[in-house]
Design brief:
About 55% of the residues lie in helices and about 0% in strands. The two termini are about 35 Å apart. It is mostly helical. It is elongated, with a radius of gyration of 19 Å. The chain folds into 2 domains: about 80 residues, Orthogonal Bundle (Endonuclease Iii, domain 2), CATH 1.10.1670.10; about 100 residues, Endonuclease III, domain 1. The chain is built from 11 helices and no strands.
């Protein structure tokens, strides 16, 4: 995809949704961190259902430690891999209390020190909580980057680094959300909605979906 086409791609997405938001519910940077950690191999809808009651009583790492691992499991047991996630959340809460004065760090290096926090989770937190122009490559971004030709790569990191290079600076902060939402609702995995796609003419995907004949 050419530089001018990429700029037009994001101009159109911005026009449709000037202030895109993530679909995970949270109350502060810490509950966002927990929600993102829980969302691995789970849907945002499922995570939101599980955390609705949890976040009414937990909003800080100290409160999470007071709740404890077993009670935490009771809140998140509907989420996949909840045993491992509960263990990591408690470990991360202890690290935040011991090493970061209970505050979520604002840099990737420190975030990735926390139990259960990888590059993708760190990038989501940095983008949403702290407004940094990071790109968290999930299955949707990976698909959109490769399918459109904007950022082809065999690994999420390769796609992330290419996106960072080609996305115009004026769109960098919200690019993460625009691409996720585009992949989730339009550029879907099995049958992309090419006929209603606002950037269809800019995309180099060779197997575009066409309208069924009447």
């Amino acid at each position: 995809m050419k530089k001018a086409d990429i700029a037009e791609f994001f101009r159109r997405l911005q026009e449709r949704d000037p202030e895109p938001k993530g679909e995970l519910d949270y109350t502060n940077s810490y509950t966002l961190l927990v929600a993102v950690a829980l969302s691995a191999q789970a849907t945002d809808i499922g995570v939101n259902k599980a955390t609705k009651a949890l976040f009414q009583i937990v909003s800080t790492p100290r409160q999470m430690l007071d709740l404890g691992e077993e009670k935490l499991k009771g809140y998140i047991k509907t989420i996949g891999l909840y045993n491992t996630k509960a263990k990591n959340i408690i470990k991360a809460a202890q690290m935040l209390v011991d090493d970061f004065e209970g505050q979520v760090p604002e840099n990737r290096t420190d975030l990735e020190k926390l139990a259960g926090v990888g590059r993708k989770t760190a990038n989501v937190v940095l983008n949403i909580a702290f407004g940094q122009p990071t790109i968290a490559v999930d299955t949707h971004l990976f698909r959109v980057g490769n399918r459109t030709g904007m950022a082809k790569g065999k690994t999420p990191l390769a796609v992330e680094l290419k996106l960072e290079k080609v996305i115009p600076k004026e769109y960098a902060r919200h690019a993460h959300h625009w691409l996720i939402l585009h992949g989730r609702y339009i550029c879907k995995a099995r049958k992309p909605s090419c006929p209603t796609c606002p950037v269809e003419d800019l995309c180099s995907y060779p197997k575009k979906t066409v309208l069924d004949p009447l």
